[in-house]
Amino acid sequence: MRILPPSGPARLLAAAQLSNSVGDGAYYVGSALYFTGVAGLSPTQVGLGLTVAWAVGSVAGVPLGALADRRGPRGTAVLLALAAAGAVASFLLVDSFGAFLVAAVGYATAQCGLAAARQALLAGLVAPEERTGVLAHLQAVGNAGLAAGAALGGLALHVGTREAFLAVFTLDALTFLLGAALLRQLPAVAPTVAPAEGGAGRAAGTVPAGERRLAVLRDRPYALVTLLNAVLLLRLPLLSLVLPLWIVSRTDAPGWLVSGLFVLNTGAVMLFQVRTARSVTGLDGAARAVRSSGWIMLASCAVFALSAWRLGPWAGAAVLVAGAVLQVVAEMRQSAGGWQIGFSLAPAHQIGQYQGFFGTGVPVARTVGPLLLTSLVVAGGVPGWLVLGGVFLAAGHAMGPATRWAAGTRPPAPAPQPTGPLTRAA
């Protein structure tokens, strides 16, 4: 299965995604031990700082996405990639909680804004009917980069020296610089919102500057869709936090299975995300994909709950692998459906701010998910897994009516006005 998208702008976007994800993979593996073992912070300080940082970042994503609409997504994305590189580099100088908090807020803000600007850039360069497929390629490439970066981060953990950890942060900063250079090579996309009322030279398809800014904050149907997507994204802390704690404290499975489940997840997304996304076309198909992901997540949670029965090392491991397979299938279907819904319901001239708002589901899930899921599952045991599965099922089913409500409030779509070259076959 080819994970690279067709040649052209989509492939350059994938190259930038790959660059950033390699650095992020190394950062995710090594950052916690760097902050506690090298920078001298306590685990509580690290947790509090990251929670505050991602909360700020999730709020900042909307105005930064709107900035991409007004000033052009390519230039905005390049500037935010450079800002992310600077924020990562500033981690090298952290020697107090205050300095860490400032750097973490800068990093999270730049990351959330960059995600929104890249989505707006993709919308300007890729035909609407191709976007979900291209995003599937980007997801697959991103997972490949995360796996490679995690391996590099693992080497730093093995060496364990201060210099090794500093190399991880230097690598992450350099990958953002490379990503900025790659984004700079993409064709420019015209702003979709005029910078001033009555301004001359307004691009085709733009709207008057007099239209309310940050209109997404008053779009209740889209807000509901975004909220349901955020609930479904509570699956994000499962693999990185909840399952490791569950395996160690509640099952007989070997500890090394934590790494095995991570490899299983990233490998499956690399191989099958593109194929999964092909069946998701239109809002109805997207809603069906999300609804089915809710059922599959319920089954996954029930299987994970079975592993608490003390089945022995190998039987317990087999049950956990089965649950992880169901989880990644649900993840791929929910991702494909969410991409389609998030783009299809966003006005063409406000893609940046709408994607910035829709994208808040990720930092919100990463902010509230760890405490919520550890309390519910690790402390609550089998009943907690079943409650969590029921939450996923309810959110998946609610997405269909919410999507229909939102679609009913949209004006008829105008004839397509591409602002840049479309993807083309290799």
Describe the structure.
By secondary structure, the chain is an all-alpha fold. The protein has 2 domains: 1-196, Up-down Bundle (Growth Hormone, Chain: A); 217-410, Growth Hormone, Chain: A, CATH 1.20.1250. It is built from 14 helices and no strands. The chain has helices at 9-37, 43-71, 73-90, 97-125, 131-159, 162-184, 220-232, 236-250, 257-278, 282-306, 313-344, 351-358, 361-378, 382-408. It starts with 8 loop residues before the first helix and ends in an 18-residue tail after the last helix.
CATH topology of the largest domain: Growth Hormone, Chain: A
Average pLDDT, rounded to a whole number, is 87
As residue ranges, the low-confidence spans are 196-210, 414-426
Q: Using the alpha-carbon principal axes, give the shape.
A: globular
In total, how many domains does the architecture comprise? 2
* Largest sheet descriptor: none
The total count of helices amounts to: 14
The secondary structure category is: mainly alpha
Helix content: over 70%
Head-to-tail CA distance between termini: 15 Å
Fourth CATH level, the homologous superfamily of the largest domain? MFS general substrate transporter like domains
What is the strand and helix layout of this fold?
Blueprint (H helix, E strand, L loop, with lengths): L8 H29 L5 H29 L1 H18 L6 H29 L5 H29 L2 H23 L35 H13 L3 H15 L6 H22 L3 H25 L6 H32 L6 H8 L2 H18 L3 H27 L18
